[in-house]
Design a protein that fits this description.
- The chain has helices at about 1-10, 10-20, 40-70, 85-115, 125-155, 170-185, 185-190, 195-215, 225-245, 250-260, 270-290, 290-295, 300-305, 310-335, 340-350, 355-380, 390-405.
- The protein is mainly alpha-helical and about 400 residues long.
- The chain has a single domain, classed as ABC transporter involved in vitamin B12 uptake, BtuC.
- α8 (about 195-215) packs antiparallel against α9.
- Belongs to the binding-protein-dependent transport system permease family. FecCD subfamily.
Length: about 400
């Protein structure tokens, strides 16, 4: 029986090695141990070793997972919702806004203080500065009108390369003053500077715009592009009529009229500012409160309608406010076609946002800086203050061409 037992007995360690479940270093020393009379201990030992190995592996995996979970993530800039989503964008915008404001204030103060023989702060200094304050006030009002009107107009038309001048405001202004000189001669130039003529010019331009918008945007087949096209055609027709009357004038009358039709700060009368300032303030405040609506209008027709906005009504309201601002600006200093485009383009590039609450202030300060800087340079360095409109048109037209060439499309 002993021989039979020895022949049939198999070492459990040998079975484990054959199964590949336990390494030699982990096997118990079975030498001298009392062997089991059956082979049932082999599977039990194998199962125990497998359970221990599995538990060890799971414990190591859990430890690695915990270590990975508690590893701190790299620091990233916190993002927020809004027009300026990051802290860097907000710092950049307000730094540019402050810098533009400082430059605008410096340019305006230079207009008051340059070549002023009296000490700064003295009574005589302020007496002389008060005589020049009219030009500074005109610059501030005109820059406000052009900046606000152009940005709002480009929003409702969904076109960044056009200005409100495309609707024929400047052509109508030219026709009004040409008619005054054509029918009344040199006396018409004198009458053109009166307060009543200023109000008449503004009223005619606003009524003209209201009729045009009411006719082309309130019908069943209202279309913004058709309105712009008709505005261009009307502007060309009014310009041709003005040119015809200018051909029939005497050389002296034509010279007087030409000086009046070139945009210049000196064209403005101080008495007109007391009328223009309240009107401009009301129209500008209305556009400012409509800034959230303008943000929605900028998304396009479908998005605005889906968001519950009456797009047609707000388009007409905004365009009427734009016509008031453009009428005031044109009646004060004369035509400046590319000034609004230049200011709006620079404002969008510097602001790096489409939110009108941020674009409007920056556009206004940019307009003051550009207009005051150009007027100061031409008046005190080149002694050609009457050429401000010409220089603005040349610079603005050049930027317009560069913008088109860079984009490669209209």
């Amino acid at each position: 029986m002993a021989d039979l037992y020895e022949a049939t007995y198999t070492d459990p360690a040998s079975l484990a090695r054959q199964a590949g479940q336990l390494g030699p270093s982990t096997l118990p020393d079975v030498e001298g141990a009392t062997p089991s009379p059956t082979t049932a201990d082999a599977p039990a030992t194998t199962a125990s070793g497998t359970a221990e190995a599995t538990a060890t592996t799971a414990s190591g995996a859990a430890t690695q997972t915990t270590a990975r979970t508690h590893t701190p993530a790299p620091a990233r800039d916190a993002r927020h919702q809004g027009a300026l989503p990051t802290k860097r964008a907000r710092v950049r915008y307000f730094a540019i806004l402050a810098g533009m404001g400082v430059f605008a204030l410096a340019a305006c103060f230079a207009l008051l203080a340059w070549d002023n023989p009296m000490p700064v702060g003295s009574e005589g200094f302020w007496l002389i500065a008060n005589l020049r304050a009219t030009n500074v006030a005109v610059i501030i009002i005109v820059a406000f009108c052009q900046a606000m009107a152009t940005v709002a107009f480009q929003t409702v038309t969904h076109n960044r390369i056009i200005t409100p001048s495309i609707m024929g405001f400047e052509s109508l202004y030219t026709l009004i003053h040409t008619s005054m000189v054509f029918f009344f001669g040199s006396a018409g130039i004198v009458a053109a500077g009166s307060t009543s003529m200023f109000l008449t010019t503004v009223g005619i331009m606003v009524v003209f715009a209201a009729f045009l918008y009411g006719w082309l945007l309130s019908g069943r087949y209202a279309n913004m592009q058709i309105m712009l096209l008709i505005g261009i055609i009307l502007g060309a027709g009014l310009g041709s009529l003005s040119t015809f009357m200018q051909r029939l004038m005497t050389p002296g009358e034509f010279d007087l009229l030409t000086a009046r039709l070139i945009g210049s700060i000196s064209n403005a009368e101080a008495s007109h500012l007391w009328i223009a300032a309240p009107i401009v303030a009301v129209a500008g405040a209305a556009l400012w409160f409509l800034a959230p609506k303008l943000n929605v209008l900028a998304l396009g027709h479908d998005a605005a309608v889906n968001l519950g906005l009456n797009q047609r009504a707000y388009n007409i309201i905004v365009l009427l406010l734009v016509s008031v601002l453009m009428a005031i600006s044109t009646a004060l200093i004369g035509p400046m076609t590319f000034f609004g485009f230049l200011v709006a383009m620079l404002a969008y590039q510097l602001a790096d946002t489409h939110d009108h609450r941020y674009v409007f202030p920056l556009a206004w300060l940019t307009g003051i800086a550009v207009l005051a800087g150009a007027y100061f340079s031409l008046k005190h360095l080149f002694y050609a203050e009457g050429a401000v409109g010409i220089i603005i048109e040349v610079v603005g037209g050049s930027f317009f061409l560069l913008y088109i060439l860079r984009k490669g499309r209209l």
